[in-house]
Design goal:
Could be involved in septation. The chain is an alpha+beta fold. A hairpin with a 2-residue loop joins strand 3 and strand 4. The strands form two sheets. A four-stranded antiparallel β-sheet has the order 1-2-3-4, covered by helices on one side. A two-stranded antiparallel sheet has the order 5-6. The protein has one domain: Stage V sporulation protein G (Arylsulfatase, C-terminal domain). The chain is built from one helix and six strands; from the N terminus they run ββββββα.
Length: 103
């Protein structure tokens, strides 16, 4: 018996691991939901339209990538993305990268 809408999911922890190498992937994130369930390997990607998240995925036999875990609806995806990107920005501000001087 489904209890649709019975409770609100809360992201209770966000762990950000910055990616040191150059490229579009900026960090790998783990989130904890309701202090009971963890999703690892969410990627923060710097795309053409700015930062976004990519849910954990694996390559299928047909060569396509399939999400292993993902939100069921766009509202939940947007909420998770907003929380992750806010934490990512906080981490980036707290640990600024070395800036090379071109003077």
């Amino acid at each position: 018996m489904a209890m649709k809408g019975a409770c609100v999911m809360n992201i209770t922890d966000v762990r950000v691991r910055k990616v040191a190498k150059e490229g579009k992937m900026k960090a790998v994130v783990s989130i904890t939901i309701d202090d009971e369930f963890v999703v690892h390997d969410i990627k923060v990607i710097d795309g053409e339209k700015g930062l976004f998240i990519a849910m954990p995925s694996r390559k299928a036999a047909d060569g396509e990538y399939r999400d292993i875990a993902h939100p069921i609806n766009s509202d939940t995806r947007e909420r998770i993305q907003k929380i992750i990107l806010k934490k990512f920005e906080e981490v980036m501000e707290a640990e600024p990268e070395m800036v090379q001087a071109d003077a």
